[in-house]
Design a protein that fits this description.
The structure holds 2 protein chains of 2 kinds. By secondary structure, chain A is of the alpha/beta class. Helices cover about 40% and strands about 15% of the residues of chain A. In chain A, strand 7 (about 260-265), helix 8 (about 270-285) and strand 8 (about 290-295) form a beta-alpha-beta unit. The radius of gyration of chain A is 21 Å and the shape is globular. A 9-stranded mixed β-sheet of chain B has the order 2-5-6-9-1-10-11-12-13. Chain B has a 3-stranded antiparallel β-sheet with strand order 4-3-14, with no helix packed on it. Chain B has 15 helices and 14 strands. The chains are: A alpha/beta, B alpha+beta.
Chain lengths: ~475, ~500
């Protein structure tokens, strides 16, 4: 097991000249050389770019130039984040070889802060999945046990940090795609409040649900990264009109007097080892001076159903642009409609096709009210239930995933079982709230268990206070 | 409610007059007009909104629908759309954007961002000449598509073509779609509606409204029914690209539907394509194979809520609208407000100039005629100083020069961008003839042609020509034709 460096340490050491950015990159590249063959975290490793960038940062430091808060911190980016001149594929055949002409806002903010990209990571195609088995380029393996999945859809990003391929990484979370793989790989993973982090340059899956967030080995690293990437972006109309939250400064505040919600009508199906860790987490927070209060979330079990209408509906529209006309794969055919059909049949995998069909159907005339319209109502119900719950508590604790990392193939033949992986994470996205997963001990087979801290919109500060306390207690 | 009791359920309560019926059928027309807004940049990106540039030069990730690109609403486009809405007496309201999903190569995202159940402008109206009020249901914002050009095959259509090229310069250009209520009852009214809408667009600066360049495009909905019965099934005609074509397409389509119904047939709900060359409509598609656009709220944008202060600022800054300006010009010049001269001069924006001529003591009625006839290529504020035109109008009014001479001087004024009219008249030898000399010449002409004089006195107007011609000859063309006619008339009545 490699000793993981933290972003806080790297940035401080590199900025002070104790450690060179080049050395950090070489360390990561050596780890990649050693294990990437078995883990397959990346779609592309940008070794040369990383070396050049690190050399530039080292030169800047020598010259006394300002290098930013993430100087020399290596990052791996989920391959649905647009990177100028670097292949960005969403792990889909339809985008294989596509090089964006621009950097997304988060990518630019990271570069401006002195971060060094080491590669683009594997994902379930177009972020649709919970195990990274849906990648067109082959699955990613969990570095903690390569017979198991790393979770998904941001499985490559989680694996990259867990395997020491990068100091930190970024994923996108539409229904749990950061938090669940973070839990399964023993990392911290954050789904920020909707609108907190710009989506510009993030290839959309469910536009009203998607948020970019970090994977880190510590809560402090996650806080630091949030401070760098969050804050208003005029290029994203859904971006909230406010600056990044101050999170580093709240980590030491403790949880004295905080009210922690425990959902009494939580959806069933979690394994005993996971529930045991959740109880321990409540206990730890109580010991630290918080009170645990019971809350109800009667609509929580409907979240999954609503999500599997809303997200596919938006996806069916978002993915319509992959039509073979302007970029990506084109399969030539006898006429326009045949070209559309053949291109999309060859370019998309089964799960993507399944969701496009589901979403198209849900939005169709005559079905809209019964499906998409009803899902929007459930979405409001969930927000209402959360609002009511947060009248009596500051944050809520749930499991992140019902189980620890599962074995390959366990759920691939049963989409519904796979969808259930996200039962605890989805309601946050539907409500537009914040949530994060924090490692809290181990369960079955010594594998990590994540506890999820849920907070209302813009509740990042209390959420990070609780996460920091759990980290201290773990 | 009448015995049939059905008109109340029709979406318009306007009833055609007996003269407006066609062989006993009532025509119902509604118009959907798309206009490109005169913004510098596109509706959701910073690329230039400019017609006629090299293909695919005004593009960017948003325009091309590249993965990860997001739309950002252009505030100036909203303001121009509000200006138009307020000029059309609409209510400006909080609104949302929807996605209209369909596949076509010139639609980069495979959806068009448009407005659906909550448009920006609703419930307005537009007044046609003769005080005919046409309801405006809505005027909403949306983005334009790219432009496809199909090569090979017949008629430049995609079907059967060898290949197609797409220019995305137009993709994302801001459009306003103005939907009228089905209050139009004649093809003439439809033409007036488009013409008036165009005048308003130009007056408020919302669009250059060039139908020939496609910055203003009309879709025409036509149906016919017997008075007092429910509206007939309508057909939508696309590709109607001039005001004249609007009239022709409606007349053709009304006749087609009436003949069909009279022959015992039924009108099918269809989308038709107007072929200007053949003067016919062709079927594009019937209702059964209409697209299901799967409209849903655009999640990449937030609701647009124009605050009251903004709306009032836009309203206060609205210029005088064409109808009011025509009215004012008619009052100033004594011309009819429906006259062509008034319409043309207001459309050119030269009505204020006529006001300036009148302000320096010129004759407004004559100025109107001058401007209509000679200022077509001049800007809204012509180069000829108002004082020069005022001087010319007074010389003619006071019979210092004849109208023919005035016309000659006017041409010279315009060519030179102004001039000293009195000196110009003198240089040309245009001097006024005193009335004594003119009367002597009239008497001389009468004496020389007693036959014509007798016939003229007997009421034969044709005989006047010979007498006037004779006077002109005697005066070497310097006599004022109108003065001669008046003298002859007076003498005949004496």
């Amino acid at each position: 097991m490699v000793e993981l460096r933290t972003a806080v340490d790297v940035a401080r050491a590199v900025a002070s000249g104790e450690l060179s950015a080049a050395a950090v990159v070489e360390e990561n590249l050596a780890a990649i050389d050693a294990r990437e063959g078995e883990v397959h975290a990346f779609n592309v490793v940008t070794a040369e770019r990383a070396r050049e960038r690190a050399a530039q940062i080292d030169a800047d430091i020598k010259a006394g130039r300002n290098v930013g808060r993430l100087a020399g911190v290596t990052v791996a980016l989920k391959d649905n984040m647009c990177t100028r001149g670097v292949e960005t594929t969403c792990s889909s055949r339809i985008l294989a070889g596509w090089k964006p002409p621009y950097d997304g806002t988060v990518v630019r903010r990271l570069a401006d802060a002195g971060a060094v990209m080491v590669g683009k990571t594997n994902l379930d195609e177009f972020a649709m999945g919970s195990s990274t088995e849906n990648s067109a380029f082959g699955p990613t393996r969990n570095p903690l046990d390569t017979s198991r999945v790393p979770g998904g859809s941001s499985g490559g990003s989680a694996a990259a940090v867990a395997a020491g391929f990068a100091t930190v990484s970024f994923g996108s979370d539409t229904g749990g795609s950061i938090r669940q793989p973070a839990a399964l790989c023993g990392l911290v993973g954050v789904k920020p409040t909707y609108g907190m982090v710009s989506r510009q340059g993030l290839i959309a899956f469910g536009s009203s649900l998607d948020q970019i967030g970090p994977f880190t080995s510590t809560v402090a690293d996650a806080a630091l990264l949030m401070e760098v990437i969050a804050g208003h972006d005029p290029l994203d109309s859904t971006s909230l009109p406010q600056p990044a939250p101050e999170l580093m400064s709240v980590l030491s505040h403790g949880v004295e007097g905080m009210r922690i919600g425990r959902i009494t009508d939580m959806p069933e199906g979690s394994s005993p080892d996971v529930l045991e860790r959740l109880d321990a987490a409540f206990e730890a927070l109580r010991n630290a001076g918080a009170t645990v209060v019971d809350v109800q979330m009667p609509s929580m079990s409907y979240g999954l159903t609503a999500y599997y209408l809303v997200a596919p509906a938006e996806a069916s529209s978002n993915l319509a642009r992959f039509d073979g006309v302007r970029y990506g794969l084109r399969v030539d055919a006898k006429d326009l409609n045949a070209m559309y059909g053949d291109t999309r049949a060859a370019g998309f995998g089964d799960e993507v096709k399944r969701r496009i069909m589901l979403g198209t159907y849900a939005l169709s005339a005559g079905y809209y009210d019964a499906y998409y319209g009803k899902a929007l109502k459930v979405r409001r119900l969930i927000a209402d239930d959360f609002a009511k719950a947060y009248e009596s508590c500051d944050v809520i604790l749930t499991p992140t995933s019902p189980t620890v990392a599962f074995k390959f193939g366990d759920k691939t033949n049963n989409p519904l079982a796979m969808y259930l992986c996200d039962v605890f994470t989805i309601p946050t996205n539907l409500a537009g709230h914040a949530a994060m997963s924090v490692p809290f001990g181990t369960g079955e087979a010594g594998l990590p268990v994540g506890v999820q801290v849920l907070a209302p919109a813009l509740g990042e500060a209390p959420m990070f206070r609780v996460a920091a306390e759990l980290e201290r207690a773990a | 409610m009448n015995a049939v009791g059905t008109t109340a359920t029709n979406p318009s309560t306007v009833v055609a007059t007996a003269e407006q019926l066609i062989d006993g059928w009532e025509l119902v027309v509604g118009l959907e007009v798309h206009v490109e807004l005169a913004t510098k940049t596109k509706l959701f990106s910073a690329s230039a909104n400019r017609f006629g540039d090299e293909p695919n030069t005004n593009i960017d990730p948003v325009t091309l629908g590249l993965p990860g690109a997001l739309p950002v609403l252009n505030r100036h486009a909203v303001e121009l759309a509000m200006r138009l809405g307020l000029a059309l007496n609409c209510r400006v309201q909080p609104c949302t954007f929807h996605r209209k999903n369909y596949f076509y190569p010139d639609l980069p995202k495979a959806y068009q961002i448009s407005q659906y159940d909550q448009p920006l402008n609703v419930d307005g109206w537009l007044m046609l000449p003769g005080d005919v009020r046409i309801g405006v249901e809505r005027a909403h914002l949306e983005e334009d598509t790219g432009k496809s050009t199909h090569f090979g095959g017949a008629e430049g259509r995609i079907h059967g073509s060898d290949y197609s090229l797409i220019d995305f310069n137009r993709a994302g250009v801001p459009l306003v779609e103005i939907v009228s209520r089905p209050d139009i009852r004649t093809s003439e009214q439809a033409k007036q509606y488009v013409s008036e809408l165009r005048a308003i667009l130009l007056a408020v600066g919302a669009s250059d409204a060039k139908m020939e360049e496609g910055s203003m495009r009309c879709d025409v909905n036509v149906s016919v029914h017997k008075p007092g019965t429910p509206f007939g099934t309508r057909c939508e005609i696309k590709n109607v690209n001039s005001i004249r074509s609007v009239g022709r397409a409606i007349e053709y389509e009304a006749r087609r539907q009436i003949d069909l119904l009279t022959g015992g047939g039924v009108v099918k709900q269809q989308t038709l394509h107007w072929d200007d060359a053949s003067g016919r409509t062709n079927v594009l598609r019937t209702k059964e194979d209409a697209d299901d656009y799967r409209y849903f709220l655009e999640p990449d944008l937030v609701p647009l809520v124009p605050d009251a202060a903004w709306i009032e600022r836009v309203r206060a800054a609205l210029p005088a609208l064409p109808a009011a300006r025509r009215e004012a010009l008619a009052v100033l010049t004594g011309a009819a407000k429906e006259s062509e001269a008034v319409a043309v001069v207001v459309e050119r924006g030269q009505d204020a100039y006529i006001g300036a001529v009148a302000n320096v003591g010129g004759d407004a009625a004559r100025a109107l005629v001058y401007v209509q006839q000679a200022f077509a290529d001049e800007p809204a504020t012509p180069r000829v100083p108002a004082g020069d035109l005022a001087a010319l109008s007074l010389m003619e009014k006071n019979a210092k020069i004849t109208s023919t001479q005035a016309k000659t001087l006017l041409t010279e004024l315009v060519a030179n961008g102004g001039g000293d009219v009195i000196a110009m008249a003198k240089a040309k030898g245009f001097e006024a003839m005193d009335s004594g000399a003119l009367e002597a010449m009239v008497d001389q002409a009468i004496a020389a042609d007693a036959d014509a004089w007798a016939k003229f006195k007997a009421g034969e107007q044709k005989a006047m020509g010979a007498l006037v011609g004779a006077v002109m000859k005697l005066s070497k063309g310097k006599a004022d034709g109108k003065a001669v006619t008046a003298l002859l008339q007076a003498k005949a009545n004496a």
